[in-house]
């Protein structure tokens, strides 16, 4: 909706005039099976919704028209699409020859259909043998081809078919940046490649809130609960049919032993599919009380079934692609999807050669819940594809041009000169304020939102979600693609689970809090959480003085004292996630009491709270104010007053700051003697006041071998937000590249 609101009427008029006399683009969408229709249907709905720009012709062929596979053409009719032509193209058989004959039959029948329709462009999806026949026919008849999901990598003959269609196609819509890079490496014209995401994600990411229990009960029985059943979908591997059938037998045996209610879908039309059905019947799956065997489930209902399953098992691309949007655990068997990008919800069993191995995988995965993954789309694919279709100039030469450039190393995508910057949502939970920002890959804070941090858990979480949703919506307007959410918070954090274990006293009701799950579920984005000190170190590693430095330490000098340690380019968390609690290094056995309950910690001497405490003591004794200083009656004494007094010559204030600087310096010396970094970065509002004192203590107290360490003040304006963004940007770019 935002996309269409931003489209100017003038731009629409220019597109129409470019193709001459308000010519509508005649688009032929050919669908061969239930799987490709789930990807094509969102595009078809989009085309149908804009009759002023497009004419839609629908051609149905392949397994859609076979009773054994559920006569799935009916769901196209139920979606209120007019089917222009039905082509029976499947040759019955159980070997590879039947697939070849099916391709040949389609090639015989398609020319007459295309001659009658005379489309401007044909949309072809994926990597099935039926799609190869479509692309071959259209290319030889000089019809432009738009290929959906090119550039991806998987196993079996599908790879070869997919890449063959790529070479025949004139335009390409891909789902991931890796796929885009593969297409460029295959010498396809970069200007004719659109990185849009998977069209099915436009429906998936809005599907989980719908009523689902009636669907689960309809397909699996009234007694079944959410997360307590399995969806199984396995296809033959045409390059090794015997092994794939044996693997299917082992899978069914494991599922029978696992003893959970299971929905088994019939396999695709491929060589070996009939033998797999015979295996099902031989084992009595269709009559087993724990199993429901079906030929077809409508896509809208299938979404709900996998979204709320305890696990999905098999070798379908749906498992490694679409199911990640819900965080449902997946067991991917065999080599059929080798090379696919997957989320952390997928457990691969490459060599599924024993029942015990598959059973063990079920025990590991069943009932888990993973963060939602958006590797394959962000829910905005169809608007991008429609805009891309409108930009096609039919006056351009039909002949393809192949390019031989180096692979482009860019971090943003170019669609019609609209820059979509890869970005992160960064959240900073401070003692006073709650801040959310859109942060670009280069560390630019594109947009920032600030609210007072609520006092209760419920109010705080609700505000985080509200601010994140607002920021994610704004990201569309400023052309930013959000890759995930990073959260910086005080206290001890388990970053693996996204849980705040223990909070600081500055943030109430903030212990044993799972932040990852509710935020990931609400936003359909991966979420990372870490301690604010660790985030400051990550910010320095990516954007600040620590960039390219192998070993360094960051010390935050603010309300409290915290920090993070980078060793061999990686952040140290420790065995119980308590590493780098640098503010609680003890520098005196009988020093002032710290908020942690101990005595003599650095934080008890050098933090903003400690300086404020000492300033109050001086003020109560009328020893704080000197000539040039004044305070209003209601004004609260702070560390800033102590620093001001010292600058104006107050010897008592100077002594307190000197002691604080010495304590911080002794703590840094202990750090140098423990982890031996090459750089110490002081961050926070007090850093400039302490840097010289720290250097002096190092020169007096440190071993000669570590005195050469560099001590610098951070040049980052907002390390907490930049560090939270680094959690996302570092991880996602590693995964993609």
TrEMBL record:
Q: Which SUPFAM superfamilies match?
A: Actin-like ATPase domain, UDP-Glycosyltransferase/glycogen phosphorylase
Recorded metabolic or biological pathway in which this protein acts: Amino-sugar metabolism; N-acetylneuraminate biosynthesis
The principal localisation class reads cytoplasm
Which keywords does UniProt give here? Allosteric enzyme, ATP-binding, Cytoplasm, Hydrolase, Kinase, Metal-binding, Multifunctional enzyme, Nucleotide-binding, Phosphoprotein, Transferase, Zinc
Q: Give the subcellular location.
A: Cytoplasm, Cytosol
Any matching Pfam family: ROK
Can you quote a single GO CC term?
cytosol
Q: Name the Enzyme Commission number(s) assigned to this protein.
A: 2.7.1.60, 3.2.1.183
- The record's active-site residues are 532
The reaction(s) catalysed by this protein are: an N-acyl-D-mannosamine + ATP = an N-acyl-D-mannosamine 6-phosphate + ADP + H(+); UDP-N-acetyl-alpha-D-glucosamine + H2O = aldehydo-N-acetyl-D-mannosamine + UDP + H(+)
Residues annotated for an N-acyl-D-mannosamine binding in this entry: 492, 504, 532, 581, 584, 603
Q: Which residues form the UDP-N-acetylglucosamine 2-epimerase domain?
A: 53-390
Tagged with keyword Oxidoreductase: no
Question: Tell me, which GO biological process terms does this entry list?
Answer: UDP-N-acetylglucosamine metabolic process
- GO molecular function term, any single one: N-acylmannosamine kinase activity
Query: Where Zn(2+) is bound, by residue?
Result: 584, 594, 596, 601
Q: Which NCBIfam families match?
A: NeuC_NnaA
Q: Quaternary structure per UniProt?
A: Homodimer. Homotetramer. Homohexamer. The hexameric form exhibits both enzyme activities, whereas the dimeric form only catalyzes the phosphorylation of N-acyl-D-mannosamine.
Similarity remark: In the C-terminal section; belongs to the ROK (NagC/XylR) family.
Q: List the protein's name.
A: Bifunctional UDP-N-acetylglucosamine 2-epimerase/N-acetylmannosamine kinase
């Amino acid at each position: 909706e935002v996309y269409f609101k931003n489209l100017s009427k003038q731009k629409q008029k220019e597109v129409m005039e470019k193709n001459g006399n308000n010519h509508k683009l005649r688009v032929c969408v050919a669908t061969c099976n239930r799987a490709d229709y789930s990807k094509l249907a969102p595009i078809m709905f989009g085309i149908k919704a804009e009759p002023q720009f497009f004419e839609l012709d629908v051609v149905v062929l392949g397994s859609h028209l076979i009773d054994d596979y559920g006569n799935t053409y009916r769901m196209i009719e139920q979606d209120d699409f007019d089917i222009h032509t039905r082509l029976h193209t499947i040759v019955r058989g159980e070997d590879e020859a039947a697939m070849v004959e099916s391709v040949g039959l389609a090639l015989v029948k398609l020319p007459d259909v295309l001659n009658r329709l005379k489309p401007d462009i044909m949309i072809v999806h994926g990597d099935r043998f039926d799609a190869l026949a479509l692309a071959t026919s259209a290319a030889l008849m000089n019809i432009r081809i738009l290929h959906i999901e090119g550039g991806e990598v998987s196993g079996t003959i599908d790879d070869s078919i997919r890449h063959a269609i790529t070479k025949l196609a004139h335009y390409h819509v891909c789902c991931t940046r890796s796929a885009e890079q593969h297409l460029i490496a295959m010498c396809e014209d970069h200007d004719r490649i659109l990185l849009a995401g998977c069209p099915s994600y436009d429906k998936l990411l809005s599907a989980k809130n719908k009523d689902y229990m009636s669907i689960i009960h309809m397909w699996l029985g009234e007694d079944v609960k959410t997360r307590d059943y399995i969806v199984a979908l396995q296809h033959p591997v045409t390059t090794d049919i015997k092994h794939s059938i044996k693997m299917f037998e082992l899978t069914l045996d494991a599922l029978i032993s696992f003893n959970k209610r299971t929905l088994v879908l019939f396999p695709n039309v491929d060589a070996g599919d009939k033998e797999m059905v015979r295996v099902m019947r031989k084992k009595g799956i269709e009559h087993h009380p724990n199993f429901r065997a079906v030929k077809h489930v409508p896509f809208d209902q299938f979404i709900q079934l996998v979204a709320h399953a305890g696990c999905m098992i098999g070798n379908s691309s749906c498992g490694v692609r679409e199911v990640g949007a819900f965080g449902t655990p997946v067991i991917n068997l065999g080599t059929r999807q080798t090379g696919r990008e997957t989320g952390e919800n997928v457990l691969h069993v490459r060599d599924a050669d024993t029942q015990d191995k598959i059973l063990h995988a079920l025990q590991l995965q069943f009932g888990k819940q993973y963060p939602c993954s958006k590797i394959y789309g962000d829910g905005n694919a169809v608007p991008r594809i429609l805009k891309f279709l409108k930009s096609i100039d039919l006056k351009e030469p039909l002949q393809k041009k192949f390019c031989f450039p180096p692979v482009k190393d860019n971090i943003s995508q170019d669609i019609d000169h609209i820059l979509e910057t890869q970005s992160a949502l960064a959240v900073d939970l401070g003692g006073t304020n709650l801040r959310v920002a859109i942060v670009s890959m280069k560390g630019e804070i594109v947009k920032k939102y600030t609210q007072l941090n609520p006092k209760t858990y419920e109010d705080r979480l609700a505000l985080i979600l509200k601010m994140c949703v607002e920021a994610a919506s704004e990201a569309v307007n400023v052309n930013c693609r959000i890759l995930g959410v990073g959260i910086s918070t005080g206290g001890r954090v388990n970053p693996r689970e996204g849980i705040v274990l223990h909070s600081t006293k500055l943030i109430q009701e903030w212990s044993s809090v799972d932040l990852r799950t509710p935020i990931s579920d609400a936003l359909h984005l991966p979420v990372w959480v870490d301690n604010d000190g660790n985030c400051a170190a990550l910010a320095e590693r990516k954007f600040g003085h620590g960039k390219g430095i192998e070993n360094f330490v960051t010390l935050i000098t603010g309300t409290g004292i915290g920090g993070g340690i980078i060793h061999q380019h990686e952040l140290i968390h420790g065995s119980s996630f308590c590493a780098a609690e640098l503010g609680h290094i003890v520098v005196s056995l009988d020093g002032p009491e710290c908020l942690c309950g101990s005595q003599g910690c650095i934080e008890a001497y050098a933090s903003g709270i400690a300086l404020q405490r000492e300033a109050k003591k001086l003020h109560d004794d009328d020893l704080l104010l000197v000539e040039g200083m004044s305070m209003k009656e209601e004004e609260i004494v702070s560390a800033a007053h102590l620093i001001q007094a010292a600058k104006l010559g107050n010897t008592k204030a100077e002594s307190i700051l000197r002691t604080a600087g010495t304590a911080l310096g002794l703590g840094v010396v202990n750090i140098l003697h423990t982890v031996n970094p090459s750089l110490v970065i002081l961050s926070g509002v007090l850093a400039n006041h302490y840097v010289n004192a720290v250097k002096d203590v190092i020169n007096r107290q440190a071993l000669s071998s570590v005195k050469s360490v560099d001590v610098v003040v951070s040049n980052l304006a907002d390390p907490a937000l930049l560090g939270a963004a680094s959690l996302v940007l570092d991880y996602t770019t590693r995964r993609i590249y």
